[in-house]
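Let's study a protein:

===
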Amino acid sequence: MANRELYPPVEPYESGLLDVGDGDRIHWEMCGNPDGKPAVFLHGGPGGGILPDFRRFFDPSAYRIVLFDQRGCGQSLPHAGDMNVSLERNTTKHLVDDIERLREHLSIDRWLAFGGSWGSTLALAYAQAHPDRVTEMVLRGVWLVRPADEAWGFTPTGAAHLFPAEWAAFRDAIPASEQDDLLAAYGRRLTDPDPAVRVPAAKAWIGWELTANTLLPVPPPDLDESVIMAFARITHHYIAAGCFLPDEGLLAGVDRIRHIPAVIVQGRYDMKTPPDQAWDLHRAWPEAEFHIVEDAGHGGSEPGTRHLLIEATDRFAP
């Protein structure tokens, strides 16, 4: 069977800004069928924001598709590209609470949760906090954020072996005297009041983040400085704090969601969130359908991965 293409482009029929407290307002939008099966799309990053193509993983005639920009990014306010915006109230618990508040605001009883990369992390955290509100889960590029998972991305012992030139650019944006703790060094620069210090650091950070997104290289997106700054600040903020997850991690809470039908899709050559994470999740959750895509990396748009994700949402459609 030929690989499934994304559904045709669709525009939102309703959108808004939801006051979630703490001075934050999250941008949300709904697409597809107002009377369709509710589904919430959880974007990656953290700090990545939503893109129009994210709407296209769902049949718009069958689904009421809900997307939103997480705190500080996309069209949510205030935007973390502004250095005066505090990230103190931007944590995983805050985002989980925001999802639940959005569900209530939209008068949705239960919905399918779809997430890739950081979106898979957030989907797992949300479902474990509110298992009675999730009908099904579709997860891609699973990121469990265990210490070893973080080490893979941000120390010389992991992905750096596969992308030596890109790692060197990321490392050498920091003076040699501070390279023994790159996360701390980037944290100092990303919060520096001088744009001549923080902007180059943000660009180096996002350059490394985008290195391993797909199996085959693709041109980097053209992003404005505010988006780069927000993405780097928010992503670093989460990674430096272990994504604010409990010490026992997400696998310890899987028993709370094992009754939820789920599909896990993982690229064999995912160099951002390697397949052992998705495999460990499946071992803890054997009821979840598990797929390895042999010719894919981390991206959700790669043909084999895209096919399985759309196949899953089609199967879960009413």
Q: What stands out?
A: The domain at 14-146+245-316 is CATH 3.40.50.1820 (Rossmann fold).
